[in-house]
């Protein structure tokens, strides 16, 4: 009985670490495989549209514009990943790389040489100053529990999160 318990525990633990490692958020897509383009506008502090319906396996090109007065992020991840990313963003604020309405890109480059996380180079995210534009091509294969959210300190907490429904 105890052996059975142990083997179940082992399966659970290995399943969890598998899910953790693969994140199940999909992956960076190829521009030649884009099925659809969706224009997204970021305001203070919400997205337009505020939710997305996506077919499993679809490759979407998100054309993102920041029409707000603050810096915003468009980050495709799950709740756990957003939580992990938030301290990095806080550190960028502490180091005055990330300011309320701008990004000090020179400082970002310098700091990133010492601490990679300060470079904010994530394939699943764009961080934009007011009036800036950015694109992400994302393939929603093996993707579940996706949230598109902004991890600029305070924004996730006020609800800058878009729902993603994958069918
Ligand atoms: Cu934001």
Describe this structure in words.
With about 170 residues, the chain is of the alpha+beta class. The chain has a single domain, classed as Cupredoxins -  blue copper proteins (Immunoglobulin-like, Sandwich), CATH 2.60.40. It contains four helices and ten strands; from the N terminus they run αββββββααβββαβ. A five-stranded mixed β-sheet has the order 1-8-5-2-3, with no helix packed on it. Strands 4-10-9-6-7 form a five-stranded mixed β-sheet, covered by helices on one side. The longest helix is centred in the first third of the chain and has 21 residues, at about 1-20. It is globular. The protein starts with a helix and ends with a strand. The model is unreliable at about 15-20 (pLDDT under 50). Bound molecules: copper (II) ion (CU). Copper (II) ion binds near residues 45, 72, 150, 152 and 155.
Question: How many separate domains make up the residues?
Answer: 1
What's the Cα radius of gyration? 18 Å
Mean pLDDT: 91
Unreliable segments of 5+ consecutive residues: 13-20
Entry summary:
With 167 residues, this protein is α+β, with helices and mostly antiparallel strands. The chain has a single domain (25-166), classed as Sandwich (Immunoglobulin-like), CATH 2.60.40.420. The protein is built from 4 helices and 10 strands.
Topology:
Elements: H1 2-22, E1 25-28, E2 36-43, E3 46-48, E4 51-54, E5 59-66, E6 72-77, H2 79-94, H3 105-114, E7 125-128, E8 133-143, E9 147-149, H4 155-158, E10 161-166
Parallel strand pairs: 2-5, 4-10
Antiparallel strand pairs: 1-8, 2-3, 5-8, 6-7, 6-9, 9-10
Bound molecules: copper (II) ion (CU).
């Amino acid at each position: 009985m105890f052996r059975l318990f142990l083997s179940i525990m082992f399966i659970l633990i290995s399943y969890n670490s598998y899910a953790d490692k693969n994140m199940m958020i999909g992956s960076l897509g190829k521009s030649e495989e884009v099925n659809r383009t969706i224009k997204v506008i970021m305001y203070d502090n919400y997205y337009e549209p505020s939710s997305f319906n996506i077919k499993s396996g679809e490759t979407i090109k998100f054309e993102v514009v920041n029409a707000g007065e603050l810096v915003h992020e468009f980050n495709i991840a799950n709740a756990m990943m957003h939580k992990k990313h938030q301290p990095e963003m806080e550190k960028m604020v502490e180091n005055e790389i990330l300011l309320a309405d701008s990004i000090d890109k020179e400082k970002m480059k310098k700091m990133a040489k010492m601490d990679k996380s300060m470079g904010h180079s994530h394939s699943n995210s764009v961080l934009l100053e007011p009036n800036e534009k950015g694109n992400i091509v994302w393939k929603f294969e093996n993707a579940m529990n996706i949230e598109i959210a902004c991890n600029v300190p305070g924004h996730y907490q006020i609800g800058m999160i878009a729902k993603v429904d994958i069918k």
